[in-house]
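Try this one yourself first.
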């Protein structure tokens, strides 16, 4: 096996190992405040090393070293930005029902539908609008990202109705963000209806978790 293949294989294996070891339940409260920056730097370095080794056929080791350094720097910067942005959002948002998870490559701001919308409505409640305004202001301060707004429902009612409701609610949240300075070119919306539950639909508590809008903040260059 050539050195470039060894480097790339090792990098991919390490990246998969790190992903498998991440506990989603503790992502928003890491014990190390720089955890996501370090993980971003490590993953960026591993991927960069593999790409560099392949790109430089004449000297794959040199290519791996150069690619690793560039990738680590880029990954570390993204991780630092997400850590800082998440910390600011937690300080700025008034409603304890809104959760912020730093997933390493993106922030996920989850807004429960029960505190955001009246039953069967896609109009944002005035009490929650101020928090969405703060999210929009935060996004303006951190312009180097794309934003995907994803609507979800529980399994009550017709699936087709739930699908349409999730789309309308995602669009309503996106409209508030755009009205507060976030470029429409950065925002995309999607409704997933009842297809992606976060918890069991067999209990009231689970259904409440499934009724939500996720605002995913994805740094440029990530998909």
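Now uncover the answer:
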């Amino acid at each position: 096996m050539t050195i470039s293949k060894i480097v790339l294989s090792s990098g991919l294996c390490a990246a998969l190992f790190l992903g498998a070891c991440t506990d989603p339940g503790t992502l928003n409260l890491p014990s190390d405040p720089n955890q996501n920056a370090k993980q971003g730097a490590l993953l960026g370095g591993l991927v960069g090393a593999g790409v560099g080794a392949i790109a430089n056929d004449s000297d794959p080791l040199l290519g791996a070293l150069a690619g690793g350094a560039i990738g680590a720097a880029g990954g570390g910067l993204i991780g630092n930005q997400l850590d800082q942005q998440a910390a600011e959002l937690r300080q700025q948002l008034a409603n304890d029902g809104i959760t912020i998870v730093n997933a390493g490559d993106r922030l996920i701001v989850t807004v429960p539908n029960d505190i955001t919308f009246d039953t069967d409505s896609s109009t944002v409640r005035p009490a929650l609008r101020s928090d969405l305004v703060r999210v929009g202001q935060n996004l303006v301060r951190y312009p180097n990202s794309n934003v995907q707004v994803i609507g979800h429902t529980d399994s009550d009612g017709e699936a087709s109705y739930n699908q349409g409701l999730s789309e309308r609610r995602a669009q309503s949240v996106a409209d508030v963000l755009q009205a507060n300075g976030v470029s429409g070119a950065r925002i995309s919306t999607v409704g997933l209806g009842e297809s992606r539950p976060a918890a069991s639909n067999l209990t009231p508590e689970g259904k409440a978790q499934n009724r939500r809008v996720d605002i995913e903040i994805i740094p440029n260059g990530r998909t």
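Discussion: The radius of gyration is 20 Å. Confidence is low (pLDDT under 50) at residues 3-8, 14-31.
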